[in-house]
Every structure is written in C-alpha cells, then in structure tokens.
Design brief:
It contains 16 helices and 14 strands. It is α/β, with parallel strands linked by helices.
Amino acid sequence: MNPSKISTHPDFGVNLFGYLTSNLGLGVAARNTAHMLLTNGIPSRFIDVNPGGGMQGKDSTFAEKIAADRRVEPYVVNLFHINPDQMLYLLNPFKNTVALSGRINACVPFWELPRLPDAWVKPLAAMDVVFAPTHFVEAAVRDSLPDANVIHYPQAVHVPGDITPDRAAFNLPDDALIFVMSFDMRSDIERKNPWAAIEAFLQAFPEREDVRLVIKASNVETIRGLERNVTHLREVAADPRIIVLDRPMNYREVLTLYASSDVLVSLHRSEGLGLNLLEAMALGKPVIATAWSGNMDFMTAENSCPVSFKLIDVVSSTQPIYSKGISGKQQWADPSVDEAAAWMRRLAESSELRASLGHKAATDARALTACYDSGNAIVSALETLKPDTVTAAHMTDFRRAYFRNEGKRIARAIVHRIRTRLGVPS
C-alpha cells in the first residue's frame, strides 16, 4: 500500500493491534477488547500480531474477521493491545504496518512491577492515551509519566458457557479434592512462584491422600531451554500427589482444567492483572492468591482467599526485563506460605465455604464482565480523543529509528535465548 493512498482524515473507529490468534494472556485480553468493540458497534479493523515462539494461529475466535479485512488501518484510532516496547517493531517504514498520519495512538500495557522499565517510557509518552488495565499498572505509568493521559480500563473475562469439568481428560481422580496452579513459563517462573504453592500444599496436607495439586506450565516449548525449569519443577514436586502438566493446551482445555478442579492457587510475587485468577472465579472456583498487585482490582475478602505478604527485592529467572539492568532495583511480594496452607486446609474441610466463595466469585466476575462489555470504560474516551501533532511526531521518529530498534531487539532475543538454553539467570 502506498502511504499517499492512506487517508489522513480517517473515519472514527479502531485499528486493533494484538496477539489475536495467540494462546497467551495478552492474546486473551486483546480478544476481550475485540469482543467489546463489536458488541458496541464500534467500526474495527483487527491486525493479528505475531508474538513469536510458534504461538500465533492457536485461537480462531476472530480469524475470519482478520482474514476478511486487508485494508491498511482505515480508522482514526490505533489501539496497541501489546506492550509498548513491542509496538516499536510494527513501525517498519517499508511495510506500512501502521498508518500514523492523522491517527490517535493508544496502548494497553500490562506490567508487573511498581515502576516501568526505561524502554517503555518513551513509547508510552508518544501515546495520546494509555489505557491501564488495573490500578496497579495505572500507578506504575503515572509514577514514570506524571503528565500522561492515563485512563483506568478494568478487565474482564469471557468464559464460554459450555465449559464443563472433565477430570478424565487430565487423568485426575474423581474422588480427590484438587487444587490447581497455572502459569506461562515465558512469564518468569520466579514471579509465578510455583515453589510456594508446592510448599503450602505439603504443609497443609502432610499425610492426607485424597488431595492433589496440579501445576500447569504453558508455552514450555516456545523457547529452547525452558524445559530445564520443568525438570526442576518436577524435582521439587516429587510427591506423588503433585501433578505437573506441561503439554500444550488450547484455551478451552485450560479452562476445562480449572472447571475440573476445586480451588485455584496463585502465590505469585506480582501480577499486572492475574487473568487466570479471574477465569477461575468466573467458573465459580474459590481462589487462594497473594493479596498484592493487579489481582486486587477484583479480589476481595468476600469472594476469594487473599494471602498476606512481605515485600522483597526482585530476583527473576527467565524474564530479562525484570533485571536490575533494565528495570532497576524493585520489589515484589513474598506471600505467606503458612497462611496459604491454612486456607488450603479450611477449604478442604468445608464444602460449604468452597461453594459460598465460588458463588460470590462467579457473581462478581459476571458483574465485572457486564460492565466491561457495555464499553463504559473506554468507548466515550475513544470518541472524544483528537489526533495530536506532537505525539504523531514522536511516533514518526520511532518509525525512522525502526532498523536500530529492530537490531537491538534481535540482539536481546539472541542473548535471552542463549541464557535460557544455558540456564543462566537474566
């Protein structure tokens, strides 16, 4: 497409850039926004971004719409449902992946630490608006960019209504009480902290035989070397009552695993959102989780089991962006294993407590999703935004620097893959 053929006075609507066919949390969030835009009749063009690692093409929810519309960003709003450092790699001046003239640029960043990494600051400063998915992310953006136009964009989930338990699909016993812990291996195993879930489970049930802890590790196959973390996980989880699942699963299979379980456990150190917690709640499952960061937007003492914590210095394993060299010295949560174990015992001993918490969780999740689907959070903001020549100029500067940025990205990716392969901490 010749840039001169792209309208500089586009109609109102949204060009949505996201991992729309990929099986990862950011992909689910982008699909939720796509669903909201369509529900509210907002003219939309969907652009499927490839996250790499063979993850693209795993979800077909919007595949037909993506394939049917090949126009180059016909609408006034460019909504980047990918993190700002990744947005820069869409600006290839020879491919016209993104039309900039006369556009409003917006981003929905997901971040897990109290302060933004330096690499995010300039790209977010070039946005006309930042839609923060949680108050935790909002605080991080405002801390680094006090003058930015930041709008809270509370998230939701769209769990299919036909998801039902199927323990046989995962070789789980029908007569056991099952706790499940799920995480994406690419999201840093130290942040997701399965070690604390294992320790709490063993402390809670030193001898009880009718309990299980299922640990689902996703996207292990996407980077060579991540399987080393699974090996270590299996060594720590040597108790026969602990089951580690690392085979690839699509979104419906993961939701079915949650539906087949009794309680979801997430003793994470930090979450930008905590999507899997919200998914389990929507399925009517009680959730035991660290009472810090993004998940506290939707978790309360009435609908879940919050676990207290102390703050400790960040030490990451598989995510270089959390390192001191990139994000500076920061802190995240160290949840109380004793408290988590006590919650496990209470829930195991009381089906009534599990049922009441699960019912409240599902009710609150439905209310949150209904509010989200109404579009109240961002539709009115999108309709009132106007293109800004200053931010447009910043975006154009990023396009000019595309090849330099791409070179840095490739170099970082090579170093990260070598470190992962060798098992060297980031």
